[in-house]
Amino acid sequence: MNYSCSKLRNITFLTCTLLAIIFLQFSLLTSVNAQNAVVDSTATDGAAAASGDDGSGIPSSPEAIAEGESIFNNNCTVCHAINQQVVGPALSGVETRWEDLGTLVAFIKNSQKVIQGGNEYAVNLYNEYNKTLMPAFADYSDDQILNILAYIKAEAAAPAQAEATAGGGEGGEAVAAQGGGGIPSGYLTAIIVGLLVILVLILLVLVLIISVLTRFLNQKQDLDDADREIINQKVDAQKLVKSRPFIGIMLFIFMAIVVKLVFDGLYSVGVQQGYQPKQPIAFSHALHAGQYEIECQYCHTGVMKAKSANIPSANICMNCHQQIKTESPEIQKIYAAIDFNPETQTYGNNKKPIEWVRIHNLPDLAYFNHAQHVNVGGLDCQTCHGEIQEMEVVYQESTLTMGWCINCHRETQVNAEGNAYYDKLLELHNSENPKEPMKVEDIGGLECSKCHY
Question: Does residue 36 lie in a domain region?
Answer without folding.
Answer: no
